[in-house]
Structure formats: C-alpha cells, structure tokens
C-alpha cells in the first residue's frame, strides 16, 4: 500500500502521533487483507496491535479491533491455531464489555466459527453459527444482511456434516430473503442461488439412487430420521 510501509520504521515520540500511526497501520491491514496479501496484512496488524495495546490497554475497543484484524490475517494464511486464539480473546472480551448480543460480539463469534470450519471442526462451528443466526434474527431482524450471512454460513457447515436436507431448506430461505431484500442482481443473492442449484442437483441424484436401490433407500430414510431427531433436541 502506498505510504504505509514508509511510515512503519518511524516510531512516533508522542501519544497523538502513536495513535495516528496505529490508525494508518490498522487501515493498511484492512486494505491488504481482502486483496489476499495476508503476510503483509499480518505485519501491519501486529504493529497496530502493539501500539494500541500500549496506548489504550488490551481490553479497549481500539485494541480489540486490531487483535481481530490480526486474527483475520492469520486466518487468511491458514494459521488456524493463531487465528483461533485471537478470535476467542476478542469474543470473550466483547461478551464481557458489550454483551452477548452486540453486533461486534456476533461478528467475533462468526470469525471464530470460520476458523473451526477451516479446521474441519464442524460440530463446534455449527454450534456457534446457530447461536449467531438465532441471536441475529432476534437482535437485527430475520432479513438483516448479517443474519442472512449467518444463515448462509450455517448451511455450508450442515452440508459438511452430511445434513443435506436441512442445509437445503436453510439455503432456500436465505436465497428467498436475499432476493427480496438485496435484489436479483446482487452478488450475494447470485452466489447463494448458484450454491442452492448445485446442492439441489446433487441432492436429487442422491435421492434417485436411493429410490432405485432398496438398501440405499433404507439407509437414506434412516439418515433423514436421524437428522430430524437431532433438530428436535
């Protein structure tokens, strides 16, 4: 990022300058992260975190944002354990200071769930995602973009758990609401619609195979029964 690296070596002499530099580094990390430049974003976020922790203290909002950004940079690079540790800290701090249903808390929970998904820890991811989705529905509303994102994420986790029928119903709901709220040309709607069509095609093939084979049909029915029973728990 132009200008960011050149400010990095110069250590400020007063608090106001330190805050300014920390802000520049933090914004630079946010700029680099969506571009996939994880290593550079990590370095910027680490320096921003150090400065902000020194100025504000670790538990303050400014420091927590920098810690979260550092976790995102680690997550981008596949440093799952490092990202998980940072996201847990942000989540716990946010719950204590802001409350369990604050939007920042829900974001931190969603970030942690993504790290669990990347590690293949589907049960842990699903548990968090259900909590995020239900709380978002109550706090933000069922058609809020953040609620819809949580529905989309949970559907992916359900598929990974082998719970295709439940995932399909959830994704159908997500697609329907996204079309109504965002419009038929919005990229989030189009992405979820494409996913839904692919899942429906795969699910149809699975059901057809099960219907043609008596043993497969029995296993398929038992799988649906177990999924339904878990949902009622």
UniProtKB/TrEMBL annotation:
SUPFAM superfamilies: TPR-like. InterPro entries: NLR-like (IPR053137), TPR-like_helical_dom_sf (IPR011990). Pfam families: TPR_10, TPR_12. It comes from the Eukaryota. This is Kinesin light chain. Transmembrane segments: none annotated.
